[in-house]
Backbone:
């Protein structure tokens, strides 16, 4: 006669069935057999190996219903004939610490369990079979995947560039914080939008269309376009887009607004440099050409005087000396203007603005040209309030005033007046120099401040000029963020006016 335990074993698993016993013993999956009360009856070799147990006797008496890893609702469900599935993490160090059973294993493992009730012919529960699968590698892979996704999310969130992820149809499915900052839209607002109707200006999409055809060929598409923000401002971005093997596109957007601004500034600077170099070349060409005449006169008359000194009368010698003196003075003025211009262009002439009393400055400038006015009997009338202040570079202002007043004297007839006037208008300080002399023709008037259209003119008494004075004046006025202009009528005189921001 069979013992009670043998009857229970037989009722739970037909161990006399050779095929079933063979499957039970040789199964690579751990199997545990329990009776109706939850007492462990048997466990196959795979189960013993899984738990690091040498003999089945070491765990005899273990009760399924006392297993802390069993879900709370499991007992009632399996007693009602239902099968359940659950997972848990087993810590072998805690097993030893709590003396649950002797094990040779250390660390932890993840187990997936399938608990099925066994029944008799009357469909009554007679026991339970527990199949256990070691899913440690799978769980570790899942954990690693979760951590990888979390790291990717953290990485994208920390990225200094905007990141968009979208479907192959072009709908946005994810966006990082940077793109939200760029566009002024939240992640929730962006997700679900089509890329063509999301953040870009319509003009930039027309100028640089989206190229899904190239993306589907596996190409990386690089483009520039503008993002329109809710406040109406725009930023320029460089966008790198690639379609991934899973047909999800990823786009990295970098704000290049500052770069584009720098490029524009560099282009402006290059253009200014080109103009400066062109102006320099023209200026040097003009100086070289204009120096030929005075030096030609100097060399010619001095050679004549040396060779025929004893043959020339006093009148001819005096004429020659005057010619040499006039030519030398003219050459000196040309060289002086060249020096001033070159210093201004190369920065050697430092711009050092200071607070100046305008009346005092006008008086100092007049003292330098007074002799020319006296020799022509020209009176200079100054109308400048002694309280007017000017914030300017003293040397440059002196050069401007001397040039303007000298020109007025040069082109005035004997006995006429030159007026120097200063007044405030439209939050600016205006200084005008007026003469009633020969005036300027419309053709010359339009080119008076242009170096490549410069013409030499002589005064009412054949005073020589370099034609560069007004060009220097304009350069100095520009240094002060000011303006210079002229009004003139041939035969009636001219008014040169400069204006500077008020102090």
Residues:
């Amino acid at each position: 006669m069979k013992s009670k335990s043998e009857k229970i074993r037989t009722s739970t698993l037909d161990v006399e069935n050779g095929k079933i016993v063979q499957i039970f013993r040789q199964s690579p999956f751990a199997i545990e057999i329990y009776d109706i009360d939850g007492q462990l009856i048997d466990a196959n070799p795979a189960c013993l190996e899984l738990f690091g147990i040498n003999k089945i006797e070491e765990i005899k008496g273990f009760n399924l219903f006392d297993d802390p890893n069993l879900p709370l609702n499991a007992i009632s469900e399996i007693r009602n004939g239902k099968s359940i599935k659950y997972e848990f993490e087993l810590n072998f160090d805690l097993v030893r610490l709590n003396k649950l059973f002797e094990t040779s294993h250390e660390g932890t493992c993840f187990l997936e369990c399938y608990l099925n009730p066994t029944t008799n012919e009357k469909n009554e529960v007679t026991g339970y079979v527990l199949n256990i699968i070691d899913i440690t590698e799978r769980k570790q892979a899942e954990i690693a995947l979760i951590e990888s996704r979390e790291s990717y999310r953290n990485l994208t969130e920390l990225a200094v560039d905007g990141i968009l992820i979208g479907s192959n149809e072009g709908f946005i499915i994810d966006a990082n914080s940077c793109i939200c900052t760029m566009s002024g839209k939240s992640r929730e607002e962006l997700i679900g939008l089509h890329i063509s109707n999301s953040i870009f200006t319509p003009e930039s999409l027309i100028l640089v269309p989206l190229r899904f055809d190239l993306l589907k060929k596996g190409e990386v598409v690089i483009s520039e376009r503008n993002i329109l923000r809710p406040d109406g401002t725009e930023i320029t971005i460089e966008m790198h887009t690639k379609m991934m093997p899973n047909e999800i596109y990823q786009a990295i957007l970098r704000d290049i607004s500052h770069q584009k601004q720098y490029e524009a500034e560099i282009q402006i600077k290059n253009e200014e440099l080109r103009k400066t170099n062109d102006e320099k070349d023209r200026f040097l060409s003009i100086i070289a050409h204009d120096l030929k005449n005075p030096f030609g006169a100097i060399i010619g008359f001095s050679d004549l005087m040396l060779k025929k000194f004893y043959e020339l009368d006093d009148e001819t010698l005096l004429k020659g000396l005057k010619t040499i003196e006039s030519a030398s003075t003219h050459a000196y003025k040309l060289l002086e203007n060249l020096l001033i211009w070159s210093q201004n262009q190369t920065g050697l002439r430092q711009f050092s603005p200071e607070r100046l009393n305008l009346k005092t400055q006008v008086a100092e400038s007049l003292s330098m040209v007074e002799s020319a006015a006296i020799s022509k009997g020209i009176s200079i009338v100054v109308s400048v309030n002694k309280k007017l202040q000017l914030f300017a570079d003293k040397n440059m202002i002196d050069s401007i005033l001397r040039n303007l007043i000298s020109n007025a004297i040069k082109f005035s007839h004997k006995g006429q007046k030159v007026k120097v006037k200063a007044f405030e208008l439209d939050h600016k300080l205006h200084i005008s120099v007026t003469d009633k002399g020969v005036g300027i023709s419309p053709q010359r008037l339009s080119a008076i401040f242009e170096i490549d259209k410069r013409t030499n003119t002589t005064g009412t008494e054949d005073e020589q000029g370099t034609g560069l004075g007004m060009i220097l004046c304009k350069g100095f006025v520009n240094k002060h963020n000011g303006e210079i202009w002229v009004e003139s009528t041939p035969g009636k005189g001219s008014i040169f006016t400069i204006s500077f921001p008020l102090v």
